[in-house]
Design the sequence.
């Protein structure tokens, strides 16, 4: 509704007269100054309270925004953990109640992941070993190795036999494992030529692996049993143990790794042969 305009100090005709409208108040100059100062003070106090309320509102709004952001991140983290837990439950339920097949792709992948999470088997690098174990319980077969012509290379004078032998052992398999003791006869020159420094012996038999204690027959058995007959390594080790020659899994694996470079020329020859075929 529109308002009626009227002169100050007057009232509309239809409105009731205001109380004390006809009374006048006389103020001194000092009282007027005091009232003006009080009004300015209370107005300043009101403005300060309004600004403080605005700052508080802004601060609380920032706090609630951060709380909302933190709650959203926490909710996302909990949802991810929930999805992971549900995935594990599904995987365990599938393993327990699902179809069993060693040839299924999922089973192979899960087995590979499980093996990847396990620690590596075998002796750790840098750990103290138990040393070489020469298996003295095996029956002994002694072989005497002599120099074909024990002669001085300069004057041709024959050398005398020196007491004792230079002994070495090689483990072999012949249905029943035995120790192959190689006794190399020693010789001492009797001439005054001085070209022979001292006692000489026949050269040691060649070995498939340097400082290896297992002979060629052992590794031939291993290679044939594994790659020709397709028998697992643990069954081969059990078979050798039954024959009286226990071999550890680490020794077997290390020997196969040492033998692998010997087959590289054969592998290259096979590749060339296959590439030259018509189909």
Sequence:
């Amino acid at each position: 509704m529109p308002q009626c305009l009227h002169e100050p100090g007057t009232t509309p005709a239809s409105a009731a007269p205001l109380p004390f409208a006809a009374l006048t108040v006389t103020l001194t100059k000092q009282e007027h100054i005091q009232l003006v100062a009080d009004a300015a003070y209370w107005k300043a106090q009101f403005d300060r309270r309004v600004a403080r309320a605005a700052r508080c509102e802004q601060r609380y709004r920032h706090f609630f925004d951060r709380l909302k952001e933190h709650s959203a991140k926490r909710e996302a983290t909990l949802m991810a953990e929930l999805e992971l837990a549900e995935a594990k439950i599904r995987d365990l339920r599938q393993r327990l109640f699902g179809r069993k097949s060693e040839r299924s792709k999922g089973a192979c992948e899960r087995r590979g992941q499980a093996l990847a999470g396990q620690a590596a088997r075998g002796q750790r690098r840098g750990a103290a070993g138990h040393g070489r174990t020469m298996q003295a319980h095996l029956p002994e077969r002694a072989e005497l190795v002599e120099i074909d012509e024990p002669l001085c290379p300069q004057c041709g004078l024959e050398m005398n036999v020196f007491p004792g032998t230079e002994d070495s052992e090689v483990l072999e398999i012949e249905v029943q494992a035995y120790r192959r003791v190689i006794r190399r006869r020693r010789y001492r020159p009797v001439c005054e030529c001085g070209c022979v420094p001292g006692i000489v012996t026949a050269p040691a038999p060649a070995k498939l692996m340097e400082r290896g204690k297992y002979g060629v027959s052992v590794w031939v058995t291993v290679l044939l049993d594994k790659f020709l007959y397709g028998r697992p390594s643990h069954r081969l080790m059990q078979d050798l143990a039954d024959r009286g020659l226990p071999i550890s899994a680490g020794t077997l694996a290390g020997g196969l790794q040492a033998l692998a470079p010997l087959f590289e020329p054969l592998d290259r020859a096979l590749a060339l042969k296959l590439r030259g075929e018509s189909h």
Summary: Residues 2 and 160 are 147 Å apart (CA to CA). The longest strand covers residues 160-174. Residues 1-9 have pLDDT under 50 and may be disordered. Helices lie at 29-97, 105-117, 216-228, 233-242, 249-259, 264-275.
